[in-house]
Amino acid sequence: MRNGNNFRDDNGSARTLFDKIWDRHTVTTLEDGPTQLYIDRMYCHEVTSPQAFAGLRQRGLKVFRPKQITCIPDHNIPTVNQEQPIRDTVSRNQVETLGRNAGDFGLTCYPVGHPKNGIIHVVGPENGLTLPGMTIVCGDSHTSTHGAMGALAFGIGTSEVEMVLATQCVFQSRPKTMRITIDGKLGKCVGAKDIALYIISQIGTGGATGYFIEYAGETVRNLSMEGRLTLCNLSIESGARGGMIAPDETTFEYITKTVGAQPLFSEKEMKYWETLYSDSGSVFDKEIAFRAEDIEPMITYGTNPGMGMTVNGKIPNHCGHSSGETVKRALDYMGFRAGEKLTGKPVDYIFLGSCTNGRIEDFRAFAGLVSGRRKADNITAWLVPGSWHVSEQIREEGLDRMLIEAGFEIRQPGCSACLAMNDDKIPAGKYAVSTSNRNFEGRQGPGARTILAGPLVAAAAAITGVITDPREI
What we know:
By secondary structure, the protein is an alpha/beta fold. It contains 17 helices and 18 strands.
């Protein structure tokens, strides 16, 4: 079996970015069947890996290439008092099991409290573990985040996690390709999260099913690395297998600034990165185009990310991507009505964080808007960095002082209130303006009502106590 970096990368025809990376990592393709794909890096967290390691033990197998596996607990860990034992026995067992498995199989692990601990999809890029041209997998759907670095990244199931541990390969059916092009200049208070929610509201949660998305266009090129990571993170919410953006100077500068490119990477590697773009004349299975000027600050009103609208809009009478019964159930659950505006609606919780919006740029945006103001008395706010590195950046830039003066506190890194697998649960019936990625029924706690938004919409609600258009502040 060959290392993916040694595979041929030229078949003489115009190819997409996806084609270049996929073909380079193809070991073999079964006739009328899936491709055996070589994997450069796999991330393991505590939720989807225990059964995979158990399977290795049952078969008496070792991890084939342990240096290419990185283990990080993130879903179940608390975001306060991490120096103390985890109180919940199920969570504690999962976290401890990951540590034991990593030790038994000789894998790198960043446990709770380690300087490199945090959310896997935040830690990977900022530590040079995720790089252009790689194939990357994890037992987590939001692995699509890493595609922002010019990688081919996607989530896999637990049985496939075991397959990669044992062989450093995985069988996958080749998806179709889609290019989403966004041109133009974004308006005031519009960021990457708003772009993503807008796209999903337009094409639906199944609009990209069976496809791998490449994001392109002037607007995408002008996004920061953090913004690109946010955009690719939400690809899965449109049904896509993953999302990716061609690496460019923004990517290379990010790598240099975060991990120091020259000492770690050869000139040959960096030259290869510069070849990672879709060739002129390459053909996608589907093309979609949007204008940046049409995108405004967004929120969701229902129970899937496709039920989105502008923050100052009215809840539509129907959602073209969901059945009438689905929309009715969603509005009943949320306590909303069709035709209703949500601006001015009181909320209870604000969550800034997750693998979607837990990076330094998100905290800069949030702090910039609340600076000189005060948190509303009715608001409980959980501000959770995506990693200890982000936490350190917050302190270095003095954002912590700005936030504390405004009445907020910053918690310790972890997945936190993105999902109800740790202590940070939204109580039943309460409304949370959340910068995370999913608003399913019970996602943030049994009976919790989640309104997805970007950091600026969350900040506006945090200081007013109600859903507010940040452009008014």
